Amino acid sequence: MFTLSGAYTGTFVAMLFGGVIAANWSWAWVFYIPGISALVWVVVCFYLTANSPSTHPTISYEEAKYINDNMDQAISRKQAIPWKDILTSLPVWATIVAHFGTDWVVFTLSTELPTFLVKSLGFRVDAAGVLAALPWLTTTISVSGTGFISDKLTEKYSTLCIRKLVMALSFTIIVSSFLLITLLDASYRALILMCVIIVMTASSPAWASAGVNQLDIAGRYAAILMGISISIGSTPGFLAPMITGYIVENPHLKREWNDVFIISILIFALTIGFYMIFAAGELQIWALNSADEYQHILDSSISSRNISERNSLIEKNIYDLTDRLKAEIHAENNAE
């Protein structure tokens, strides 16, 4: 999740300076500067990327060996991809639907927040740009922190339990904050802005949980699943602004914006509800290489439904084996 936080960081920087640039220079430079930055990034990307760790120009031998030794088996070009199993898998669709619902919240706020701040809440254009950037700063921190905490928790609890826990917490915070926004009058603009920041901050753990869940269930097919999920999940990027434009005829009236937020609540509730029912935390059968790998997943302490009992059983077996060895050694000594 740390690498994906770059997208949030870039949005934060663009929002932070976008309003100032538009107010003092020209709106065109809001696009010129990111375009030039992208060209610089392309040059760096061509130099720093490689087909494999062993062909990377700057990687050390130790790091390349570590990555190769711990990397899952790649999909062969001649290997058939189980499209039918993927497209008919409810856990797969659970991650896609959750991705769609989370992106609906994110795109609604990211595309409409500057207009909402200026037209409905009365902020200046340059100030609105800076204020619209704040949610992306907290989101950057949140997505990285959630990934770290989730990894630690999966050492003690099942993967599915942690994924659903993160989703449930995100859902509760987002819905509560959206409802508070709809209840507040436009004069409470500082409190409304705080609620918007909370919504965006809480949306990143939900997105991170659904995104990482694709690795949990798909393994080496996770990249394919991510491509499908992003394609479908990104449709709110044009659907949300289109519906908002249809609903909000007068952007100065906050009551019209309330309808937009209520729609976001309903869509998010339906999609997260679907995820909570059909999500899975273990590698699916169609993503396995062999029956032995399937048995390994079943025996894994992380995928166990009751990890504490399994650990207690392992400790008991170790103690029993130790006592048996001591008894055998004692018997041999007495025989001598």
TrEMBL record:
**Keyword list, A-Z:** Membrane, Symport, Transmembrane, Transmembrane helix, Transport
Q: Which PROSITE patterns match?
A: MFS
- The Major facilitator superfamily (MFS) profile domain covers 1-283
Compartment annotation? Membrane
From the record, give the transmembrane residue ranges: 7-25, 31-50, 86-107, 127-149, 161-184, 190-210, 222-248, 260-280
GO cellular component term of the entry, any: membrane
Q: What is this protein called?
A: Major facilitator superfamily (MFS) profile domain-containing protein
Q: Which InterPro entries match?
A: MFS (IPR011701), MFS_dom (IPR020846), MFS_Na/Anion_cotransporter (IPR050382), MFS_trans_sf (IPR036259)
| MF-aspect GO terms | symporter activity
Q: Which Gene3D superfamilies does the annotation name?
A: MFS general substrate transporter like domains
Look up and give the membrane topology term. Answer: Multi-pass membrane protein
Broad class of the protein's primary localization: membrane
